[in-house]
């Protein structure tokens, strides 16, 4: 009887994927008095998923963390970004309230390499950062975070590698299985946002089947997400001007201004999965799979943008934080352009991800295995940034409207709380007789990214005392990235032009919007129906954006008015292509031996990586045909003869050794050590060659050359040591890690850069839209280089999982799972955006990250509450891509409850962001407010049906 019970339990645990945790104990002789204890070990639902994940970690040959689903479509998270944040040392950056980019061990998404079914993935971000919200959790069967590499893994992750896997239908325990998932969604902050949508839904369907005596497998999946995107936000802008406001002879730093907005819109994601697996003979497997994701986002921003006017503004009663002005009264002068812009922006982002692959796996002999893999990953992003500016007129009904230049703005920042604010024009912001549309602009970003990869792997089993097997392989990839910019502008954001007159609004175009809740003391404003306003302003149709040299560029040969008006040459100069070819080969030995009578397994190997990278380039040769100058025609027929087109780049080779060792101290305790040299390539967009020069309305010349095809990868040497204890109903893991960063990319900004001396064609003066000539003057020039002044990142990780199966029946399904990580770094970068340069930590580094989940399962009922905390960190400011700020600590709490109605039907209720945690950031010090963004809670109610 006892033997039968042990066998049944062993099979059950093995089926649940927890053999390494519980089977060893279950197979021991158990006295009759202990039978009841063995019987109540929980292996269903969430606990089963945790055990399977721990089991994978235990038997992995590298330092890793995993997430595993009970079945295809069973992960509860909205996207893989949410799911991955449950792992130790993993945190997320929230965009629009949703996790999108993940950080690993204190390093941002640019240091994270990502694969799908072992194949490199490209991104819609226009960088290398994978946007994990593009991947529906319903279509992913498991995910692993590899914190230490081995030679056979594709190089590219200093922080780590994220491996997503779709289902293998022939491994499914059922002959045929269907899963249908339907959930309704509600956001409780939508009522605060004009035209905000509050209701959304999730739907998914998946199927796995085996045919022809289990030699042919098929997996199909579809997942749809429709969700409202709402937020109310305050955004502070960088401190990029200086003026002596105290009269002490020393200039203080002034902010460009700030924004107060409602954001709303909708996000629609459709994901598709297909996988075919065929085993015609026992030693050969052919598998082909396809994954497609379409993520469309339509968003609007309404409210007002305050431009304080810079060094030319009249500043009264200044309030200082060190040398930065955080409050005072700003009055418009004839030169300052101090103003309030009422904004009604419309952003559309259409993203596509395609991943295709075919793999042949052949056991040539009992010892020799050959694997061939061919794949293609593509991504494209069509981001259309449409901006509509409105300004206050003295009288919008006048035959020739005049801008109201009597502008006075008073404000006082309040740290991580909303600021105090007052406007002398406040009543006019919602007055149709005062507000007029002054400018419309469209600024598309078109990115496309594709990688074709070919991989050959060999493994050979050995009959040797130490070497279990050897592996070797070669991989070749071709990556092609392109970025296209274009522009259309009409009117002015700072004046009423006679040549492009403002639009008189009518009642059917507008509605008055009041701020609510914490923002209720801010002035009301006019929300404008974009389509109605534009159709009235452009009755012949809105001209489409183009890539153009611009009439304000003096180098344009056939411009009717060279040097007059805006210069749009950046739309040509910031467009281009990047080419990256990589040839890698590796040799690795898998170890299996004993030391001092203790089992030791692992691997040692080296990976050789040769990279050839280049980019299209426009070199300013001053029109000299001997240096290759050509007449380059833009999309409207304007010709520039100053530049020589070409392709420039570099090539280099890395040798990446790695070692992974796992020493079994006892049957359930092991010590793991890993060491490796690793690289992370520069963001793909930063390998472009594009220097752009801008001349502002007041004549300031600025530029950037932050991209370069000569940038080299980040390099690091890293070490890992972990102590792991596994027991029948859980595990405890303690880990130490150390990364010695050898090289990273750093941005430098040179103030008052002499553009003419550097050879840039800068006119002595410009004539702006208002017809007044202004002398040009030197501003800032930004660039990037590889900085060899590295430093360490080191830390501690603790993880604990326990199911309290020893408790009485009602509580036997109670369990906890949590992790804590502590990370510190000596790498300090300098952020000048807050005025005084302030040291800041490595981007993405939170000193402390904590996750905790309490779950309970009993007779079909399941509930869990999860919390994710991360201490302050540095990241890109929400809504302003170029601004890097300090983010305040945050704690995000989620709740889920479910009831297994029968063998097929499970009912679910979820709340994401239970405490309505906002995002808060600041410029170096909390007194200098960056972003205050509130998203609301998301409620889900639905069901999962399996048959």
TrEMBL record:
Q: GO CC: one term?
A: cell outer membrane
* Signal peptide residue numbers: 1-24
TonB-dependent receptor plug domain span: 64-160
Keyword line: Cell outer membrane, Membrane, Receptor, Signal, TonB box
Matching entries from Pfam families are given as: Plug, TonB_dep_Rec_b-barrel
Signal recorded as keyword: yes
Q: Where in the cell is it found?
A: Cell outer membrane
List, alphabetically, the NCBIfam families matched.
Answer: TonB-Xanth-Caul
Q: Which family does it belong to?
A: Belongs to the TonB-dependent receptor family.
Give the protein's recorded name. TonB-dependent receptor
Q: Which organism is it from?
A: Alkalimonas amylolytica
């Amino acid at each position: 009887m006892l033997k039968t019970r042990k066998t049944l339990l062993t099979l059950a645990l093995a089926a649940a994927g927890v053999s390494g945790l519980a089977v060893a104990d279950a197979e021991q002789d158990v006295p009759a008095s202990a039978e009841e204890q063995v019987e109540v070990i929980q292996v269903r639902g969430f606990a089963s998923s945790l055990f399977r994940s721990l089991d994978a970690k235990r038997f992995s040959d590298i330092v890793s963390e995993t997430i595993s689903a009970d079945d295809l479509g069973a992960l509860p998270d909205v996207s893989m970004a949410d799911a991955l944040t449950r792992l130790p040392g993993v945190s997320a950056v929230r965009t629009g309230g949703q996790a999108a980019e993940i950080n690993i061990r204190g390093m941002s998404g640019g240091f994270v390499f990502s694969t799908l079914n072992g194949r490199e993935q490209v991104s819609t971000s226009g960088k290398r950062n994978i946007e994990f919200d593009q991947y529906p959790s319903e279509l992913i069967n498991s995910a692993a975070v590899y914190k230490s590499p081995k030679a056979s893994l594709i190089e590219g992750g200093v922080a780590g590698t994220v491996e997503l896997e779709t289902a293998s239908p022939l491994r499914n325990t059922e002959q045929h299985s269907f899963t249908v998932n339907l959930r309704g969604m509600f956001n409780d902050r939508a009522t605060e946002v004009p035209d905000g949508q509050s209701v959304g839904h999730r739907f998914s369907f998946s199927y796995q089947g085996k045919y022809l005596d289990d030699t042919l497998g098929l997996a199909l999946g579809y997942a749809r997400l429709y969700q409202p995107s709402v937020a109310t936000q305050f955004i502070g802008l960088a401190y990029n001007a200086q003026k002596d406001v105290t009269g002490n002879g020393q200039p203080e730093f002034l902010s460009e201004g700030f924004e107060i907005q409602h954001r709303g819109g909708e996000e629609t994601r459709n994901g598709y999965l297909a996988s075919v697996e065929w085993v015609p003979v026992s030693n050969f497997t052919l598998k082909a799979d396809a994954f497609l994701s379409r993520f469309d986002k339509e968003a609007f921003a309404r409210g007002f943008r305050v431009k304080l006017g810079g060094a030319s503004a009249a500043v009264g009663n200044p309030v200082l934080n060190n040398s930065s002005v955080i409050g005072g009264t700003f009055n418009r002068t004839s030169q300052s352009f101090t103003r309030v812009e009422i904004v009604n922006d419309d952003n559309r982002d259409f993203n596509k991800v395609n991943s295709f692959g075919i793999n042949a796996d052949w056991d040539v002999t009992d010892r020799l295995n050959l694997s061939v893999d061919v794949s293609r990953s593509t991504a494209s992003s069509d981001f259309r940034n449409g901006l509509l500016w409105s300004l206050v007129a003295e009288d919008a009904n006048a035959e020739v409207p005049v801008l109201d230049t009597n502008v006075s703005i008073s404000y006082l920042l309040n740290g991580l709380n909303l600021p105090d604010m007052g406007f002398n024009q406040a009543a006019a912001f919602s007055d149709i007789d005062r507000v007029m549309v002054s400018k419309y602009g469209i600024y598309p970003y078109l990115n496309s990214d594709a990688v074709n990869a070919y991989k050959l792997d060999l493994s050979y089993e050995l009959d040797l005392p130490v070497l279990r097997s050897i592996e070797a392989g070669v991989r070749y990839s071709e990556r092609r990235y392109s970025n296209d910019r274009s522009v259309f502008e009409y009117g002015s954001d700072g004046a009423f032009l006679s040549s492009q007159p403002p639009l008189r609004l009518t009642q059917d175009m507008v509605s008055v919007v009041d701020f609510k809740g914490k923002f209720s003391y801010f002035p009301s404003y006019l929300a404008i129906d974009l389509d109605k306003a534009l159709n009235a302003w452009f009755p012949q149709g809105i001209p489409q954006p183009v890539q153009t040299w611009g009439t304000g560029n003096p180098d344009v040969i056939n411009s009717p008015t060279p040097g007059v008006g805006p210069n749009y040459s950046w739309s040509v100069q910031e467009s281009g292509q990047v080419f990256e070819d990589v040839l890698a080969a590796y040799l690795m030995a898998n170890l299996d031996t004993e030391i001092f009578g203790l089992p030791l397994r692992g691997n040692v190997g080296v990976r050789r990586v040769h990279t050839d990278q280049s980019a299209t380039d426009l070199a300013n040769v001053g029109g000299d045909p001997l240096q290759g100058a050509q007449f380059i025609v833009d999309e409207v027929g304007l010709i520039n003869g100053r530049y020589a087109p070409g392709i420039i780049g570099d090539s280099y080779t890395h040798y990446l050794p790695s070692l992974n060792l796992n020493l079994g101290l006892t049957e359930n305790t092991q010590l793991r050590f890993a060491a490796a040299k690793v690289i992370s390539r520069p963001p793909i967009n930063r390998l472009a060659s594009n220097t752009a020069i801008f001349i502002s309305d007041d004549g300031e010349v600025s530029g950037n050359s932050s991209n370069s095809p000569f940038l080299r990868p980040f390099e690091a040497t890293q070490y890992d040591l972990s102590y792991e204890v596994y027991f029948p109903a859980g595990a405890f893991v303690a880990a130490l890690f150390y990364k010695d960063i050898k090289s990273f990319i750093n941005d430098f900004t040179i103030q008052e850069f002499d553009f003419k001396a550097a050879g840039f064609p800068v006119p002595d003066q410009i004539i702006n839209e208002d017809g007044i000539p202004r002398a040009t003057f030197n501003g800032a020039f930004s660039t990037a280089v590889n900085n060899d002044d590295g430093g360490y990142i080191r830390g501690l990780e603790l993880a604990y999982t326990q199911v309290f199966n020893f408790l009485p029946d009602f509580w036997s399904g109670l369990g906890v799972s949590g992790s804590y990580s502590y990370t510190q770094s000596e790498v300090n970068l300098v952020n000048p955006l807050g005025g005084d340069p302030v040291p800041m930590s490595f981007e993405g580094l939170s000193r402390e990250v904590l996750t905790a989940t309490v779950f309970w399962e009993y007779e079909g009922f399941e509930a869990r509450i999860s919390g994710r905390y991360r201490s302050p960190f540095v990241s890109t400011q929400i809504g302003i891509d170029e601004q890097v700020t300090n983010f305040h600590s945050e704690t995000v709490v989620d709740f889920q409850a479910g009831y297994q109605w029968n063998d097929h039907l499970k009912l679910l209720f979820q709340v994401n962001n239970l405490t309505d945690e906002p995002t808060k950031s600041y410029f170096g010090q909390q007194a200098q407010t960056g972003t205050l963004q509130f998203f609301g809670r998301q409620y889900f109610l639905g069901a999962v049906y399996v048959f």
